[in-house]
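wait is this the right file?? whatever heres the structure
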């Protein structure tokens, strides 16, 4: 997870490198361990397909620089009204261990036609939780940002001498 400060630095980096005519406005820049997703608004008279074709070379150039610098893939998306369309984004496999009762939930979603596979069912569950707990997740992320800032301000224990009273030595 990246901090709010790192997220803002990414946003600034992309805002400075993207040519002014690519997006009407930069909506968001989000990141995780594997991917950075950049979303902007399309000029009013332009379709998503036309935008994608017109800006391809510019986006590829910026993405190559970002991927080299940040060691993450770059995904692109556009927002038109309330709808966001993502393209060139990753679907990353995630390994998890589930107990039988949890697997049965996924199997029920598959049997009911809600999902095609357990993987799709798990992704559906994650999206559902994310949609229904946005405020709680935002608060949790803010708390994690605060924890990371406090850790960064803490003492440098790497070079400290061990305390003989607590090290177990006689």
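ok assuming it is, sequence goes like this
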């Amino acid at each position: 997870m990246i901090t709010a400060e790192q997220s803002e630095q990414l946003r600034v980096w992309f805002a400075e490198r993207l040519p002014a005519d690519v997006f009407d406005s930069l909506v968001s820049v989000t990141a995780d361990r594997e991917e950075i997703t950049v979303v902007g608004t399309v000029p009013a008279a332009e379709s998503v397909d036309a935008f994608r074709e017109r800006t391809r070379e510019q986006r590829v150039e910026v993405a190559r620089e970002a991927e080299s610098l940040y060691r993450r893939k770059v995904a692109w998306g556009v927002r038109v009204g309330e709808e966001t369309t993502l393209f060139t984004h990753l679907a990353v496999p995630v390994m998890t261990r589930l107990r039988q009762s949890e697997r049965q939930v996924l199997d029920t979603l598959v049997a009911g036609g809600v999902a095609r596979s357990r993987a799709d069912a798990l992704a559906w569950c994650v999206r559902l939780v994310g949609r229904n707990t946005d405020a709680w997740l935002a608060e949790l992320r803010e708390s994690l940002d605060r924890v990371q800032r406090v850790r960064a301000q803490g003492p440098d224990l790497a070079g400290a001498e061990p305390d003989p009273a607590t090290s177990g030595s006689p």
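Residues 166-170 have pLDDT under 50 and may be disordered. so i think its the right one actually
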